[in-house]
Design a protein that fits this description.
This is Lipase. About 30% of the residues lie in helices and about 25% in strands. The chain is an alpha/beta fold.
Length: about 500
């Protein structure tokens, strides 16, 4: 098949009847075309990637398929040989169409068994709950995945990787024939990702079709048979993943080409902003020692459990170290809380944008100024004029695309939300900015924009700690890379003196 086949070419040349076929799918919100005459199909047992930048129409298309949104006149949806002008959520679920959203939509306080089987007790009429039946359903669904876990424990006691498994087991209990996975690996380490991809392969081999949505393009190439690319609500094309490259996918998604180059610059004579001396916290990290200089970006990478986030939160005053020293601008500091850390000039961008980084129901403007209210205060009251000026400045400086400052932050794409989160901390005028997994759930084009911002901030003299479990992110965007293993710094790499493969070999060994 020609790699450059157009959006108007035949979607399927295999001769196999698709399990799902969509024709002429359009959807408009407030005068904006979210989908414009899109065609899409999935074959039985196929792993099919749906790719595109944030705002390209991927989620809208999934919601049309699952009945959340009704497409406009002229749409045709064919599923398992039956044709519909639109789906309803009840029909989609009854027909075995399941979606595992990025936030998983699980219940942390309920047990594993209850999360997997709770749909069995739903209905219009009250009914008695059989917990034994729910346990049997959970055991059967997990065994289909080859998984054993304590089904009687609350879900909150499990890490994100195992919660992802619970979400998949719940989908399988619904007799899934077609499963959509929305950013399933966004919060997983490499080893956990490999395990999840093995499960996807097993589902495919058993005849379940999987539509895989991910901004991690290496995974797309590894797991998918075909690739459908959306751009600005339109079908860009359908392509085999054989011989496809990450750079080619990026070009198709964005219409642009990106050149990954190492940005590392050594600053031996720069002033030290922060120094850690033997910093330890029981069970989390031990004897961590390093410095960050003015204008320097220090990357920290490692597998889940390495202690990276715990270290960052200790620097930000959210956790108390057991021993060791934090020296900021030559003075030892001992923060009682994060407010003291903020006042001292430390800012922390959390890895969890949805629950810790931003207040989703609140407006863009309020989210941006919430950490720096004193700067917009006029006596006892907040100045709306100063607030508008701060919002306008940072949206302009960071290239944040918004409608109105009064719009809810949830109306923005993941990339623009992350820029607002960064702006929130820059408005505090920090000396040190800690970025913890700043590109989780952010598409490839927005990632480039975020790292361009990081580079500009470093050039302006800001000290930066960049934490990521994606080695290429720290390799291409940090001046030094620290490798943490089980709470200790095991290695230090200089990107302009080593290869990406050297760091990856150390991290994934």
């Amino acid at each position: 098949m020609d790699q450059s086949m157009s959006a108007h070419a035949s979607l399927n040349v295999s001769g196999t009847a698709p399990v799902l076929s969509l024709r002429n799918i359009s959807k408009t919100f407030g005068g904006v075309k979210a989908l414009d005459n899109v065609n899409f199909e999935v074959l039985p047992g196929e792993v099919h990637c749906l790719a595109g930048e944030n705002g390209s129409g991927k989620s809208t298309l999934i919601k049309v398929i699952t009945g959340v949104h009704r497409p406009e006149t002229g749409a045709e949806i064919t599923y398992n040989g039956h044709t519909y002008t639109h789906m309803s959520p009840v029909t989609a679920q009854a027909e075995g169409i399941q979606v595992i959203w990025q936030d998983l939509a699980l219940f942390p306080e309920m047990t594993v068994a209850e999360n997997i089987a709770f749909q069995t007790v739903l209905g219009r009429r009250p009914r008695l709950v059989s917990y034994q039946k729910m346990r049997d359903i959970a055991i059967k669904a997990l065994s289909r995945l080859g998984i054993t876990m304590d089904i009687d424990k609350p879900l909150r006691d499990f890490p994100i990787a195992q919660r992802q498994i619970v979400a998949i087991a719940r989908a399988l209990h619904g007799d899934a024939k077609l499963v959509f996975m929305d950013e399933p690996t966004a919060s997983l380490t490499q080893s956990e990702t490999d395990y999840l991809l093995d499960i996807v392969r097993m589902l495919s081999a058993s005849g379940v079709a999987v539509v895989f949505v991910s901004h991690r393009l290496a995974e797309v190439l590894e797991i998918s048979d075909r690739l459908t690319v959306l751009r600005d609500g339109k079908l860009e094309g359908v392509y085999p993943t054989t011989d496809m490259t990450q750079s080619r996918i990026t070009e198709l998604m964005t219409g642009k080409t990106f050149d990954n180059t190492v940005r590392a610059v050594q600053k031996p004579n720069a002033e030290t902003v922060i120094e850690l001396q033997g910093l330890s916290r029981n069970g989390e990290f031990n004897d961590v020692t390093f410095t960050v200089k003015k204008g320097e970006t220090v990357g920290i990478t490692g597998l889940l459990g390495a202690g990276r986030t715990e270290l960052a939160q200790t620097l930000f005053g959210m956790r108390k170290p057991a021993s060791g020293d934090i020296i900021l601008d030559g003075q030892k500091v001992n923060f009682a809380n994060n407010r003291q850390a903020i006042d001292a000039g430390i800012a922390y961008l959390s890895e969890d944008r949805l629950s810790l980084g931003l207040l989703q129901p609140q407006c863009i403007a309020d989210n941006l100024v919430i950490a720096s209210l004193d700067s917009i205060r006029n006596g006892l009251f907040l100045s709306e004029r100063r607030k508008r000026d701060v919002v306008a400045k940072w949206c302009r400086d960071l290239g944040v695309k918004i409608g109105l400052p009064e719009d809810a932050i949830s109306t923005l794409s993941g990339g623009n939300q992350q820029k607002v989160a960064i702006a929130k901390w820059l408005a505090t005028k920090p000396k040190l900015l800690i970025l913890d997994a700043p590109t989780v759930g952010v598409d490839v084009g927005a990632r480039k924009g975020i790292f361009d911002i990081v580079a500009r901030l470093a050039q302006s003299g800001l000290a930066i700690i960049l934490i990521s479990d994606e080695v290429p992110e720290v390799y291409f965007n940090a001046d030094r890379v620290l490798h943490m293993v089980n709470g200790r710094v095991e290695g230090c790499f200089y990107p302009n003196e080593c290869s990406l493969q050297e760091i990856e070999a150390a991290v994934y060994a």
